[in-house]
Amino acid sequence: MVVSYADWKTLSDIGQAFGTLSALISALALLGVARSLGLEKRQTRVAELDLVRGMRLELLLFALQNPRLLPLWGYPTSLSENAMIDRAYVSSIFVYYDVALASGYLEELELRGAFSRLFERDDCRDFWREARVVYVEGRSADSRRFAAIADEYFFLADETAWLDSLVVDDRRPAAHVEPVRQLDSTPDRRADSRLAASLLCLQLLSRLVWCSAGFAVNVRHSSGGRRNASMPRR
Q1: How many domains does the chain fold into?
Q2: Cα–Cα distance for residue pair 112/117, rounded to 1 Å
């Protein structure tokens, strides 16, 4: 059987096509293997973190049952035991959400809904204000993603709480100030007028006395002069 040149060319084109297709299939297979290895590595990392955080949770639960051990976890001794227990529980909630997001057990939308409720509380905002740097500067991309979502709702809730405090201060009733009672000056004015009238009367009376005394002296002098004039000279 004689094969023509056209047949050989057709067979060559078919072989090249199958070779290209085989190369594409091999590349896709390699990509699938790489992806599966990446997912396996990620799952291993998550499992390790889950193990470490599970150990931490067990130790923390034991400390919650014995609050005197909570200062060993860095909680200030200035806080009461109840305050330290509340702070430790809030910390456990954030650790849970971090692991749940990293493992894919919790969707981002669910995490946003949880943060919108959590940051309405003062104790949750106080915790994140102190602990956020650990998540923001974390090595893993999951921790930084977790911190970015938390920061978004934290700053929004913190600003809202600050504005609400201003509104409450504006609505707070002003301190009752007793009106200054103006003293009735009418009695004083009457007393002053009476005193002035009395002084005026005294002045007039003194003038009358002086005038009367002067008139009496003049009468005496005039009567004495008349007596002297009527007496005969010796």
Answers
A1: 1
A2: 9
